[in-house]
Automatic annotation (TrEMBL):
Gene this protein is translated from: LOC101494727
Pathway terms, separated by semicolons: Plant hormone biosynthesis; gibberellin biosynthesis; Hormone biosynthesis
UniProt key word Transport: no
Role description: Catalyzes the 2-beta-hydroxylation of several biologically active gibberellins, leading to the homeostatic regulation of their endogenous level. Catabolism of gibberellins (GAs) plays a central role in plant development. Converts GA9/GA20 to GA51/GA29 and GA4/GA1 to GA34/GA8.
Cofactors demanded by this protein: Fe cation
Protein name: gibberellin 2beta-dioxygenase
Cited PANTHER family: 2-OXOGLUTARATE (2OG) AND FE(II)-DEPENDENT OXYGENASE SUPERFAMILY PROTEIN-RELATED
Length: 327
């Protein structure tokens, strides 16, 4: 049996994989070109905090081109890539995630959406990647806006841009990430799965994920079971973030998700994290309270974001802000 070298295997977390991976056919599917999209979105956000989107208007060629440039970037020598690290808070990261000893079988680029990333350190051959990234970030913001508007319409709340105005704001604190999970051939043989990106919920409002056709992404259901999401390079996968859970007073649930490394193929994913301005108060919308009390103590995105950086990836970060019903 082939094993990872001791020093490598000790660093990482594994999950037992006694059962064959079950790909779920229950993932909600939303066709953005259909009139019932808004109702399906609301149902999916209540039941899963997660759904797949088709007919989103982003040409597959644009996604493939960016993917190609991203693979090219990750094939640079490690020394070269590390010139852009560590990712505190933005830049190139390898194995280490966040600031509190979380590790995964992953390397990544973490970028803000407000500033131009400093790619000059990588030289001319990354120019195309930088330009494509810029266009893509704008397309992602627009798609996030469209989906958030549909959520408000589906929830029958006014104005329809209550959510989307936060990610469209000039001061919006959104982020973008490109994750590369190299294939890990040793894995295919020993019946265990290496964690690529450990379980967590995304703290922002909404996340838009697009990956190549390599499996590994899983979501956790309410009963604690993990289900594998069949990859689809032509679609987007949408996650409800913690902030949207709070704004809907718990009606929408942020989804716990993780990535398992693949024994055969590398996985490449790109995620847009739509966040509010730092000074924004995150609290349930009055129109969704209907006389009920807020389930959460008030906080600003600045406070929540700071607290995420003090947490471990798998922590229940919202727990700290839950208001225990006074009785
Ligand atoms: C252990 C970590 C790593 C964090 C912060 C903290 C808890 C949640 C993680 C994420 C998850 C979503 C994207 C990200 C950019 C975010 O906003 O929260 C991640 C961030 C990072 O990768 O740095
Ligand atoms: O890379 C992926 O497919 C998902 C990673 C993720 O959940 C994240 O970066 O927040
Ligand atoms: Fe995530």
């Amino acid at each position: 049996m082939v094993l990872l070298s001791k020093s490598t295997s000790e660093q990482f977390s594994y999950v037992r994989n006694n059962m064959p991976t079950t790909f779920s056919s229950t993932i909600p599917l939303v066709d953005l070109s259909k009139p019932d999209a808004k109702n399906l979105i609301v149902k999916a956000c209540e039941d899963f905090g997660f759904f797949k989107v088709i007919n989103h208007g982003i040409p597959i060629e644009a996604m493939s081109q960016l993917e190609f440039e991203a693979f090219k970037f990750f094939s640079l020598p490690l020394k070269e890539k590390e010139k852009g690290g560590p990712p505190n808070p933005f830049g190139y990261g390898n194995k280490n995630i966040g600031l509190n000893r979380d590790v995964g079988w992953v390397e990544y680029l973490l970028l803000t959406t407000n500033e131009e990333p400093n790619f000059s350190i990588y030289g001319k051959h990354t120019d195309k990647f930088r330009c494509l990234l810029n266009d893509y970030k704008i397309a992602m913001r627009n798609m996030a806006c469209e989906i958030l508007d549909l959520m408000a319409e589906g929830l029958k709340i006014q104005p329809k841009n209550v959510f989307s105005k936060l990610v469209m704001d000039k001061q919006s604190d959104s982020a973008f990430r490109v994750n590369h999970y190299p294939a890990c051939p040793e894995l295919a043989l020993n019946g265990e799965n290496l964690i690529g990106f450990g379980e967590h919920t995304d703290p922002q409002i909404i996340s838009l994920l697009r990956s190549n056709n390599t499996s590994g992404f899983q979501i956790s259901l309410r009963d604690g079971r993990w289900i594998s999401v069949p990859p689809d390079h032509s679609s987007f996968f949408i996650n409800v973030g913690d902030s949207l859970q709070v704004m809907t007073n718990g009606r929408f649930k942020s989804v716990r998700h993780r990535v398992l490394a693949n024994g055969i193929n590398p996985r490449l994913s790109m995620i847009y994290f739509g966040g509010p301005p730092l000074s924004e108060k995150i609290a349930p919308l009055p129109s969704l309270m209907k006389g009920k009390e807020s389930l959460y103590k008030e906080f600003t995105w600045f406070e929540y974001k700071n607290s995420t950086y003090g947490s471990r990836l798998a922590d229940n970060r919202l727990g700290h802000y839950e208001r225990i019903a006074a009785s």
